[in-house]
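Follow-up to my post from last week.
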Amino acid sequence: EIVITQSPATLSVSPGERVTLSCRASQSVSSNLAWYQQKPGQAPRLLIYGASTRATGISGRFSASGSGTEFTLTISSLQSEDFAVYYCQQYNNWPFAFGPGTTVDI
Amino acid sequence: EVQLAESGGDLVQPGGSLRLSCAASGFTFSNYWMNWVRQAPGKGLVWVSRINTDGSDTTYADSVKGRFTISRDNAKNTLYLQMDSLRAEDTAVYYCTRGYTVWGQGTLVTVSS
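User reply:
Got it. Predicted complex:
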């Protein structure tokens, strides 16, 4: 079973800052990795799939890279609406494990 | 518009049963694998189960295997999750998803005496 870890657990930043989140898989998941954003009381929203492809309607300030076991999500200039929890998830092998999440707050 | 709408969440006693439903609209339901994902209060996301397009292939997380049953009715564009022998640790918001791209808003299941 693939285990997903994320770092840091919490990131305290200011609007306008550049933010980089990390995601690591215990074994290769190729490029079968997605990133989600979740705000309190809401369902997760898909940001990125295929490790680096933005989902429909997602702002260009979100970018992602990586393959195999190491992945990153970058928010180029943090906006107030970006404060949320970010999860990565592999869909290469069942069970499709999620990471524990990174909370981005002020 | 592509939409998923879950229903059926409730308060149930340990050992009890519950059936969740997910009504799909805006896309050809029978063409897609479907999934259930859950999130315990204040916790992260956990993939629970998946089903192929015609219902002949199902997979479960170890934590629910033998207790939960996923199924679908393509004529009614509806996904189901039958949950038996419920435990306190099954308390969560349950999301219906189409692959990893489309998510419903979730339905809350609370298992408590």
